[in-house]
């Protein structure tokens, strides 16, 4: 248990921040799954539309340092390649 007032406050902040970051990370994973589902359905137009929104979500999460920028780039690259492979 934290002994100083500062340490107690930092622990409270950490819990709140962890909750918020987990929410954003979950949102990103869900949007990636939606792209994967559109790819599996074989609909390139729908996959492109969902991919455009997902790219925005991935970039937003990376800008907040919840995931590394290279991981964001890797996700976007692999999704784009999978969409391109449909057609």
Automatic annotation (TrEMBL):
Gene3D superfamilies: Ribosomal protein S20. Residues 7-22 have a biased composition (Basic residues). GO terms for cellular component: ribosome. InterPro entries: Ribosomal_bS20, Ribosomal_bS20_sf. Keywords: Ribonucleoprotein, Ribosomal protein, RNA-binding, rRNA-binding. It comes from the Bacteria. Residues 1-25 are annotated as: Disordered. It holds the Pfam family Ribosomal_S20p. Binds directly to 16S ribosomal RNA. Belongs to the bacterial ribosomal protein bS20 family. This is Small ribosomal subunit protein bS20. It comes from Yanghanlia caeni.
